[in-house]
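Figure-free illustration: sequence to structure, shown twice.
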Amino acid sequence: MANDDMVVVAAVARKGGSGKSSLIKTLASAALAAGKTALLIDTDAQGDLTRWYARAVKEGNAPKGAGLASVTSTQQLEETINRAYEEGGTDFVLIDTAGVGGDWADDIAMLADHLVTPVVLSVTDFEVGTQTVEWFRRLHDRVEDPSDLPPHHVVITQFPGQTKATKRELELVDEAVRSFPVINSVIQRRAAYREMDALGFLGEIIRSLQQSPNPLQRSQARHYQEALMEATEVLNDILEARA
């Protein structure tokens, strides 16, 4: 039976290397830890998400509800999303996109329920964020019915924390709020996310650490739990936000 509650989230930015893959890994970890199922779709020829998923499986840190598909065209992407919808077993479809423009990005936007752009507090990343926001605004002029477009959200990532942030970083936060559709929560700069990139989904890393006979390893689970709580807040904010 088709799942009418399935949610499609696509990470988009106007160039590669902007943190889209990391954001998708983080959101997937949150969804799966909440007991949902998630299909990750890699549309990037670089294959970062595909390699990460393979590492997660190898390390035993890929939960049952996770799946991965790699696609190379809009047609394949649409077919994959439609199949997940019709089969009914997928709660979230999370799409990692390449940093390119043109029809490919436009088509992905039309297939998603939410678009998210990660932005780091740097001048360079702000330029990319601005380009992405402008692309989305222009997209309203290119589509037949702009109301068909999903909401677009910006997520501030690698935030050093309120007490550790420099004056310039805090100024950039204010600028981001004025310039972008920023959600309320942020993703902080945490070692847990770097380890996630090496080991797999956050929830499974926590489970593995908690079951370790080594008390030092068990104590490390707390850091991943904090990251997972943060990831859950970000996912919930995305789902609740409006354009």
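We now fold a second protein in the same way, so the two outputs can be compared directly.
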Amino acid sequence: MRILFAGSPDIAVPSLEALAGAHDIVGVLTNPPSPKGRGLALSPTPVAERAASILPGVPLLAPLKLGQAERELVRSLAPDILAVYAYGRIFGPKFLALFPRGGINAHPSLLPRWRGCAPIPYAIISRDERTGLCVQRVAREMDAGDILDRVELSLRGDETTGSLSAWAAEAGAAALLRVLAAIERGTERAEPQDASQASYCAAIRKDDGLISWDESPETLYAKLRAYSPWPGVWTTMKGERLSILGMEPYDGGAFGDAEPPGAVLRMDKARGILVKAGSGVLALTALQLRGKKAMGFKDFCNGVRGLEGLVLGA
């Protein structure tokens, strides 16, 4: 089939590669270049970079909005279907009308749970026992289309957004290929979503990584994993930014009840720097002060004196 592929971040690249190997990609739609790095130079999306490498000569569209000019260009490409993974925008009816076979969209959650742009970190923060990936028909409402394919994954409780994104990147590519093959055969089956069970997730912001020590150890550990690799979690120590790179809930007994949240209680030589979190204790295992190198907790304690009794985030 003749496919217009729409996607932007790394998670969409394996799908672009898989579809390019099995179908005719007539165009690639992605987000405009954005400023990155210390110099804030404009950089193309990962999908744009990969498309330029594996699909030379194929039109690459990176518009700020999908207006009449963009629709006319897509019309001239005569695509059969729109295949989407993490493009990040809702398509209007005039644009969708350009595709005789409609559009399909890979989404890394078990829809209707976690509709929206950050389903992977939300599944981790919520400590879901399972997640997955769906391919849905593209609908006017965000992530509300009929389900065409579903893959489930049980969660152990140690996954990060990075590790789940890597899984979802490959799962999405395979699922899109299955759905396209079924559409070509005329054997696809569509399952409507139960809108009454829908939940939604908002975009993750940079300041979401600021630790509130009033939260439980389990919640903070989930946030560490959800915000890895970005934006990370951090607190302050004596007014300096302190990134927490590793942590785990501490189950070595109850103590520190009289201390405020964020208080450094002591160092457990086998587990980490013990800090009061909510009504429990968290063991910090890897840390990094701004402008310094990342350290394990033992090296950090050797380099920073007088930790015990400090209140982080104060």
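Summary for the second example: The longest strand covers residues 240-249.
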